[in-house]
Specification:
The structure is a single chain. By secondary structure, the protein is α+β, with helices and mostly antiparallel strands. The chain has 16 helices and 13 strands. The protein has a domain of 194 residues: Ribosomal Protein S5, domain 2, CATH 3.30.230.10. A hairpin with a 2-residue loop joins strand 4 and strand 5. It is globular. The structure holds alpha-D-galactopyranose (GLA). Alpha-D-galactopyranose binds next to helix 7.
Length: 481
Amino acid sequence: MTDRDQLITRLGDRDPELLRMLDQHYNIDVTDRLLRVLKYHAERFPGDREVAVLKAPGRVNVIGEHLDYNGLPVFPMAIDYDMTVVLSRRDDRKVVAVNPEFDDREFEISAQIPRFETGDWGNYLKAGVQGIVDEFGGPEKLKGFNGSFLGSVPIGSGLSSSSTLVVASAIAVLESSGIGMPPLELADRMAKAEWYVGTQGGGMDHAASILSEKGKALKIGFFPLSATPVAIPEGYTIVVANSMVVSAKTEASRIRFNLLPAACQIACAMMVKTMGLENEGIERLGDIYFRYGRIETLRGHEKTFTQDRYTRQEVADFLGLSLEETESTFYTARSGEPLPVPEEGLPIAARARHVISEAIRVEESVKVIEAGDGEAFGRRMNGSWISCRDDFGISHPSLEKLVDIAREAGSSGSRLTGAGWGGCTVHLVADHKVDAVLEALMEKYYNGAIREFPAAAERFTQRPQDALLALRPSAGARVLF
Ligand code: GLA
């Protein structure tokens, strides 16, 4: 905890010692952002002189899409856009959260925190706090806080703005309660914590937000969670271009998202059956991949799938289950909500093909990066894009335009990033080509093709600063002051 007014003065004066300290955590100057949220906190909670300031960054996934919940490694990096929080301690168990962009929210920390209405920003706060309650087996050790939240990650863009809120509120409640938690354990806990809001994502976003190191991307493995920092190849910049089409993790697309893990689970069960692995404790496609290797996994895929789509009845027949058993095992969200599967079934074979080929690309990416071969890494990103588009079905015409424009202007590797169906694209660009790629994207997409997507064009007019970002890896979540 630190003295609020002194901190405001020192930041306002650009105190060199503070700037040096911030430089360890960011690649950009964030003093204005910090001042804004500190002053907002002072205005909203004038009596709270002792404060803590924390950051929880967003992430861009460089390669390894939809692998986390399959138990396979991913390769994201934290970005300098984050959820910045100023908090002050309370003696009770109430959380009072304010945000210049949303309505105020208040709730009690209890054993089972009841949800706000679906889609409410406060549910992400509750998710983080509930995760900590679950970690400690109850609310007894925890104290509430007054928190001012200011997000700079563009919302609904596939850069994980939602997870920044979950992680930030968890760290805030730990800080207000004077409790520490090892980062790996916190990241593991947060992956499950976000299921509270009803999306069945994996653990990538939280792990990237919590475990990243400045200047490095992170190879993250799951079950058990592990994180290895790996530098982006020398001489290349990561460029993120936002389609401005709102992406998949938003409320309306929750169900569509949840069908993806469901398809992967079905693929896994079908492969287990043909490969005779029923008694091997296989839970996810990643278990098959790691235990039997890529060749056996590819063979298992080929042997299992004789058609692309499988209806519910076909899945039930294949697995020797009743329709009811199939429904409750695969077509029901953790919240108990039934998943609406189309009549013609799900393209199970293609979904699994993406997962296996993407796992191979991630493995190869780390090797070629270590060998310093940026172009070879770019080729893996291009392969990932095609697989996400054709086998995983998560593309959008706006993303196709962005990828084509960037590749034509000299990007070495271009793909969508995050859940898909909109949001951002990520590009690996040789430093000397960055200007050309940014110019081409501006001219041909933002000043051109975006008009084919009226809602996106309108968002661009309102928030042009969310469109094009040239990024270096940021440090993970931490209490700054
Ligand atoms: C969302 C989920 C992540 C991950 C990505 C796709 O962002 O939250 O866990 O599955 O989609 O890679």
